[in-house]
Structures are given as structure tokens and as C-alpha cells.
Amino acid sequence: MSRAAALPRSPAGRRPLAARLAVHGVDRVVLLALPAVAVIGLLFIYPFLYGLGLSFQPRQGGGVLANYLAFFSDGYERSTISKTLRLALPAALLNVAVSVPIAHKLRHPLRGKRLLTTVLILPVTLGTVLVAQGLIRYFGPGGWFNQALVALGLVDAPLSLTNNYIGVFASLIITGFPLALLLILGHASGIDPDTERAAATLGAGPTRRFWTVSFPLMLPGISIAFVLAFVAAFAVFPSAVMVGNPSGSTRVISIAAYQAAFERFDYSMASTIAMIMAAVELVVIGAVLGARSRLYRGATSGGKG
Amino acid sequence: MADALAPRAARVTRLRLAFSPSGWLLTAVMAFFVVNVLALVVSVVFSSFASSWFATPVPGGWTTRWYRFAATTFQLFDVLVVTAQVSAAVMAISLVVGAPAAYVLARRTFPGKRALLLLFLLPILVPPITYGIPLATVLYKFDLAGSLRGVILANLVPALPFVIFVLTPFIEQIDENVERAARMCGASTWRVFSRVLAPLCIPGLLAAGLMVLVRVLAMFELTFLTAGPGDQTLVVALYYSVFAAGIRPAQAIDAMAVIYMLTTFVPLLIALRFINPTQMVVRRKREAAA
Hints:
The complex is a heterodimer.
Chain A: H1 15-23, H2 34-55, H3 66-73, H4 75-106, H5 113-138, H6 144-151, H7 165-188, H8 193-201, H9 206-234, H10 238-242, H11 253-262, H12 267-292
Chain B: H1 7-19, H2 21-48, H3 65-73, H4 76-107, H5 113-125, H6 128-141, H7 148-172, H8 176-184, H9 189-218, H10 221-226, H11 234-243, H12 250-274, H13 277-281, H14 286-289
């Protein structure tokens, strides 16, 4: 560390370059970021590029695109994309749609807000494995949820809520909803309440204030929350195996990739599926962030500067 | 920012929340969610202490024998040691490597800074299972996976950017004049870092470290893909125990789940004393404002 932040004491011949770089803010301090860049480069970028290259070298031969052709021509494999989308899109949309009005209500300091956010962080922290394990018990035929439904007279016999689509969907809501709400809430708390007060003095009612003032200002936060909620749901793995039907309706794309890598030991095919997964995610991230860059992102926080 | 609101505004908001029908509906939705999550956790805890429990509101009898059973059957002690080793190593490395990078991002603007931010943002945006499979392939190729080293390396990928994005706003709010003053008084760079910046950063380092700890404990996918049989962390051991359920009683798995919950809750509760929960998911987006 000591070498990095020292003043440039290079020989006179090199000083102009160092000085020119320093004008742009590049000095030895910037080198402090190098170890972090190296770690991410070696453990994230390089494996990704390696996997991309590997996906074009099929184990069985048959041309550069053989793996991709095999994936898309096999109906069982191809259907994992639609199965994953059928879980991830509704889950992400529901999580965000419910979070928006709640975050809007909670955006100002309220009594008990900290307790509420603490309770919300619990499922995020517990992670999908524990939530799935809990759902097996709680949503099971003899679990409290079904007992309550029967006791209330809503159903005659216990519903089957695990080992199918519903179980996985529930696990995506339990871990995804708090994440979406906390993200949107974090963004909404930074919006200057004076914007709404100004609209109110101009005679706008609560509904109009929400749709023409608050909602557009919340949209950047909402779009980020949607992206993260969708991407997390799209990569669902443990709960799809544990509370889903991993050979049928919830055989999501991550299960297909895992099986290729660790059951058939075809790392080339596994990389192919991982790349397809990444491509779908990046398309969604890119589309939403592209739309987001067109949104208004001016002063949302207070201050008179 | 919003904390600077007058108390009057807060009071007005609460009144509106209490009287409007939509407020009641939203409160009901939240209550339904919270009650179900709590019931889910409590039913796992009950089950772990139940001698038997079949479709009745409460178990027939209580026992602690499933904990002893889980401790012996699932090699709980070994698993806890591995979990502690992995978390400590990931915490230490990500703080040592991440803090200088956070300092650079907080103090300097330079060409390529946006690209650097994107580089650190990508491992957070892309889910672990997506990059975990190519990462595990590479680690197996270099003979690093299937060992403790592999698990630590894989867990660094999401931990390091997390440390950077937690620490950057923290360092930004430390007045740069403090550093300048120290330099004026003749402190060397190393002294500025060790005697001025580090003490000021301790709360931030502590918060970042605890949050990394919580994340490593809950990180299933990467550990699952890179761990060999002898280096599973608690969450991976829990996953495998569910699949061996045919030969093991469900209550023993629930006992395992309770132990996992406790190891996660303790650092979480300590972390929550230092940070606002929204900060745990919202990384202050400076680059968005730039």
C-alpha cells in the first residue's frame, strides 16, 4: 500500500506522462484497485470466457454450434427455458407489483419501519435452501398452512402445495418479495417528499399525485428491483429441486445445466446451457436498463443546490 | 436524506395510513406475508423438538434427541469447522482486497471508472448458478475445486464486489481534509492509512465483514458446485440431508435447519445494529447519479 499512494517521483524524462495522467486523475492510488480487478478478472471474467469457448467445442464433435443445436432441437431441454420463464416472470412481476404500493406507503419515516424491514430481511438471509426446507414442512399435507385452510373450512382435504409448481412459486415469493420491497423502499426513501407536497398545493389528489409524481420518480428503483428479482428467480435452483417437481413441471434451466455438468460430466454442454442462461438474463437486464436510461433521473432528493 | 424530515410529516403519514382502506389492504398483505414466514420458521423449530408430529396443531411430545442424532449423523462438528474456515477466509480476503479498491472508487475519478464499476457490478447482477458452472469447470481444470481452497475462491466472487459497494459510500463520507491534514503534518501514506483512515473505517469494515459472513453462510450454489465431500458448509450439508431423507427422520433435518438458522441469525442481528436493513440490498448507486 505504501508504494501506491506515494507522490509521483519518476525521473524528469517521464514526468510529462505522469503529469498528464494525473490531470485525468490517474496516479498510483488507482493501482490500489488492481488486486480486486485481478480477483474478479481471474474468477469471474476468465471462467465466463473459458465457458463460452468451451461451449463451442462439443464433446461429441459435429461442428462449432453442435451443442447449441442439440439444446434447441431437444424438446425436453428446450422446454426448460419456457418452464423457467413461466416461473420467473410471474414471480418477479408479482413481487414488484405488490412492493410498489407498500413501498409508497412506507417511504416516509414511520414507527416500526425498522422492525418491519428487519423481519423482511430474514427470508432473504435464510436463503432458498432453508425456505424450501421450511416449505416442505409448512406447506406439506399435514403442515400448519393446510391445517389452517381445513379448519377455516376453505378446503375439504389438504391441498398438494409441494413437489409441484406452487411450491417453487411460493419459495420465489418468500425470498423475492422482501428483496424487491427493500430495493424499492431504499430508492423511494430518497425521493424528496416536497415534490408531492408541491403537487398537492397545485390541487392534485392522492391518485394523481401517485401516478404523475411519485410513480415516475420511483420507476428507476422499480426497474432495478424488477431486474434483480427476475434474474434471481430465473436462476432458481435449490427450491426447484426440493419443493418442485425436478423432472417435470419445474425442471428449470439451471437443473439442466447442473445435470449436464455433474451427472453426465459433459462440461462443454453444461457451459452451453450456462451461456444460454446468461444470454437470456443479459437480454432482460439490457432491455430494462436500456428503457431505464430514458427515464427521468433528475433531483429526487432534497437540497437547494 | 429522508431522515431529515420534520416529525410532523411522519405523524401525518401515519394518520393517513391508519384511516385509508388501501392502507388497510396493504397492511393485510404485509401481515399475511410476515405471519406465513414466521409460521414457516416456527414450524421448523417445533418439528426439530418434536418426538412425533403428524397433522396436529402442535407435536405430540417434546425431545432434544434429534439434535444429538443430527450431530452424529451429519458430522455436524466437521461441517461447522469448515463453515467457520470458509467464512473467515472469505471475510479476510475480501476486506483486504476490497477496501483499497473501494478507496479508489470513493476518492478518484479517472477514465474507465464506469467500466470498473460495471466489472464489479456484474458478479452481483449475474446469479451464482450461471457463472458458478463455468467457474467450477475452470476450478476443476486447475485442480482447485473439490477442496477448501476452491470453495473459498468461488465465494470470493460475490463477496468482493459486495465489500466494495458497501465500503465506497462509507469512505466517501469521510472528509478528505482529514487525510490532507495528516499529510501536512508529515504522515507517510502508510501512516495515513493505518492511523487515520483505518480507525475511521472500522464501523464500515465491521458492517461489510458481517454482511459478507451472512452471505457466505447462505451461499448455497457456489459452495455446492465447488465443494468436495469433506468441505461442505452448513447450508450445503442441509441440502444433502434433505435428499437422504428416506433413511433419516424429518425431525433430524429440521434440527439441522434450526442450527443453520442460529448460525445465520447471530451475525445478522449483530450486523443490524450497525446498518439499516435496506442497505443490505440497496447498494448506494453513485454511478447512477454520475
